[in-house]
Design brief:
The chain is an alpha/beta fold and about 650 residues long. About 25% of the residues lie in helices and about 25% in strands. The chain has a 9-stranded mixed β-sheet. It has an 8-stranded parallel β-sheet with strand order 10-9-6-2-1-13-12-11.
Length: about 650
Amino acid sequence: MGADNPLTSPGDFVVGCNYWASHAGAAMWRDWQPEVVARDLERLAKVGLQVLRVFPLWPDFQPLTQLGTGFGPVEFRHDEEALPDDDAGRAGVSAIALQRFRVLADLAAQHGLHLIVGLITGWMSGRLFTPPAFVGRNALTDPLVLMWQTRFVRYFVRCFRDHPAILAWDLGNECNCMGPATREQAWAWTSAITNAIRVEDSTRPIVSGMHSLSPAPTGTWRIQDQGELTDVLTTHPYPYFTPYCDQDPVNTMRTILHATAESRLYADIGGKPCLVEEIGTLGPMVADERTAADFIRAALFSSWAHDCHGLLWWCAFDFGHLSQAPYDWDAYERELGLFRADGTPRPVLDELSQFVQLLSELPIRKLPPRRIDGVCILSEGQDQWAVAYSTFVLAKQAGFDIRFQYADQPIQDAALYLLPSVSGGRILYRRRWLELLERVRAGATLYVSHEDGMLSPFTAPFGVEVLTRARRDGAASIRFDGVAGHPLFTTRAPIDLRLKPARADVTVLGRTEDGNPAFIHTPYGRGALYFLSAPIERELTHTAGSFHLPNAPACWQVYRHIAQPVLASRIATKHHPHVGLTEHTLEDNRRALVVINYSPHPISTRLSLADGWRISEVWRGALAGLRAAEIDIHLPANEACILVASPSATRHPSPDRT
C-alpha cells in the first residue's frame, strides 16, 4: 500500500470500528466460532465500514508456560506440550490461533474490510492479559518477556505480511498500560517492537496504539518519542478517561472538539499523522443513543476537516451478556456497541454509514489541508494538555486555526503566535525566546497569557514594568474595555502582577476591578505583542460549562481581537462562537469551506466572504440566503455544511445536497 495508505496519505479519511466477536468479546480466540465472525463482518461491511482494528490476544497466540524444578526453570511449553521444532515453535506461537486469525483476515478481505492489527494485546478494557510464563513479570521492561514478544511479532508479521486485508501493524492496545517504565525503557520497548515489525514488513505503516501521551520532557510515554519511532500516532479520546474532558455534555463544543484537539496536538508535536483510533460515549449513563449519534456526526466532520485520517468507534458489539473479566468488572465495558445485545443497530452506526457515503459522493477524493493561521507554543512548567485543549477551542470559537509545537522545537513560521498560560522559570530557552521576539519584530503577532511564569527579557519588549508580584487570594475580575463587546470575566489567576506601562505606545485593553492593567498591547517593530496577566486557558479547562453555557465568559473575543490581521486575510469569516470554519485550497484557486455546528441547538448565522469571492457550489447543507459578500446559513444541531468559494464567481450555487 506504501504511500497510498490512507493512514499516512494527507487528506485521506477512513471510518470503522474496533472489533471483538459478538458472542465472546476478548475470549473469541478460545471460544472460536467462525460462523459468528463471518456474520459479524458481513454486517459491518454491509453498512459501509472500511476498517476494523483487531487484536490477537497475547496469551492466546503465545500461550507459553515455564516449567522447571525447585532450582530454576528448564523449558517453555504450551501447557504440557513441547514446542515444535519449527519457526512457530521457536516463536512460541500457537498454530491453532494463527489459523483462526487467517480465517478472520480472509473473511475481512472477502467483504472488502481492512485490518489494523494490534500485535501485543496484553492490555484490554481494563484487564491485563499475559501468557502464564510471564505472570508477575513487567511486560515492558523484563528482558525475557521482550525477547519472546519480539519473536512473536516477527513470526506473526512474517505470516501475514502478504495478506491483502492488512492495512497496518499496531504495536498493541494501549501498551503503555501494561506496566511501569521510565522514559528510556518506554523508548527501548517501542524501538524493539517497531524494529521487529520492519524487519519482516517495511511496506505497511506502524501505528502507535498508545493513549495519554505527554509532550513534556518529564513524561514517560512522550508524543515526540512515539513520533520518532512509529508512522501513525493515535488518540483514544474518551471524555470519561481524559483529564478535563468530562466537564460538559458530549454534544457540546468542548467535548466534540476533544478528539480533534488531542489528535492535532499529537500530530503537530510528533510530526506524524494521527488517527482517532478509539472513540465512544461509554454507554447510556453518559448520553442517550440519539445524543451519541449527534456527537459522533459532529466529531466525524471535525476530525475529517482537521486531517485526522480516520475515526474508529469502540466497539462493534455489546458485551453485557458476558460474565468474564473485564466485562464482569466494569459497567462501561458492556453497552458500547454499534449493535445492541439483541443485534439491532444503534443510531451511531447510521451516522458512520452516512458519512462514508457522503465522502464517496464528494467531487474530491481527498480533502486538502486546512489553512493554518497561528502556532500555539506549549512550554515547560505548565499542564500542557489543559492549556492546549482550551487554546484550540478558543481559536476555533474566534474563527482561526492553529497548530501546536513544543517549546524546545524550532520556532515555526507563522503570522500569529500564542504562548498561553505560561508557568515556571523555564518557559522557553533564551535562544528560542529571542528568536520569537525577532519574528514579532519582523511583523508577527505574539500573545502571552500568564499563570506563574518568568520571562526575560520582558520589560523592554512589552513596555511594561512589574511593580510587584504577589499571590492572589481569590479571583480577579477583568473588564476588557479595549476589546469589541467589552467582555467582563472573572478568573482565578493565582498571581497578582501590578503592572505599569513604561512607554507611551503601550495600550491598556483590559483592567482588573481596581484599575490595574491586565491586558496590554505593545507595538514591536513591525509586529505586535499582547500580554494578559491571567491564565484564561488553564482556568477555562478546569471550569465546567465554560464554552457552551449562555452565561459562559466570552474569552474567545480576546482571541478574536489579537487575531484580527490573520482573520482579515481569510477568504471567509464566521460570526458565531459555536460554529467552526476551516478553509481548504482546491484546484483553480477555489476554497472548500467546512462549516460545523458544535452545538446541540440549530444555529442560523452568517458567513462573510472577502472581496471578489462568491459561493459557487454547495456540497452539503443549505443556504438560507445569498448576498454579494455575505451568506446566511442554517445549521441543524451538530450538523455541518460544505461550501465551495470561487474568485469572482458568476454561476449560481448548485442544488442543495444533504
